[in-house]
Predict the 3D structure of the following.
Amino acid sequence: MRIQARHVCITLSIAILILISANLCIGTVHIPLRNIISVLTGGTTGKESWDFIILQSRIPSTLTAILAGLSLSASGLILQTAFNNPLAGPDILGINGGAGLGVAVVMMLLGGISTGSITLGGSMSVITGAFLGAMAVMGIILLLSARLNSPVMLLIAGIMVSYLTSAIISLLNFFSTAEGVHSYMMWGMGNFGGVTLSQIPVYGITTIAGLSIAICLTKALNAMLLGQYYAENLGINIKRTRTLLLISTGIMVATTTAFCGPVSFIGLAVPHIARLLLNNGNHRSLMPVCLLAGAATALLCNTISILPGNRGLIPLNAVTPAIGAPVILYVLIKGKQNIRQ
């Protein structure tokens, strides 16, 4: 890894530590830092309510934000490279739409769950429905990838699948009860706070599995930057590599969407943030910077969403576009200027 990349990684790591502290300290209930440190080191605060908030709310939401940032940023980088499209994101293949359809079936067709539950995003029925829906779409995309050699055609097929799932969700919305529609709308806002501490190991292991595949394919990703034919001349099996990349993306996006809802813009914007920080397209240095930037961005969004304090939480998908959209606009404007030059 180059010296510049190391400096960027160190800076992002420090930022992550600061943001973790902010996530643990900020909330509707003020808990002194010394009490939080006491709980983290195996002690107690002396108040059961504070122990519960730290162990069952703040620590899980902080870990969830980190895992979601890692998953979505890696998925975005993979898809942008594999499809040679700077605007490709985790939702481009319809995986988010499949997860949304699974949740819509659970909430609006099978009776759903209570809208007043604070663990709406963490309900096992919702998680199971989202994961099965996302993996079903992932299966369709994998079947299509075996028949479609062009990445552009596969991209269009993914968009069409996304439109199809949206149409079915709209029909379910039309025939559902007001409570079911409201539950689905709340899930669609995204939430890092719905995962329990007991669910974190499952989320973490699945995320690591998807990331492991992606990291092992960094050499292939570098070759794909130079074009399909050049990569094939280097001995890269494009079809097999694309399949593995889709599986990696599918695992990470499906799991994150199942646990956190459809989190927008992080997967689309963070790879561009990493490229701007490095000014380098080598995935051996770009991948770790992208992962760290993703974790930092997700933690920052989670911190902003809990800032109102006693007034409640800002929906996560109201925060992520405020950070991601300016990055994408900057990339588009810069790209246009480069073309003119």
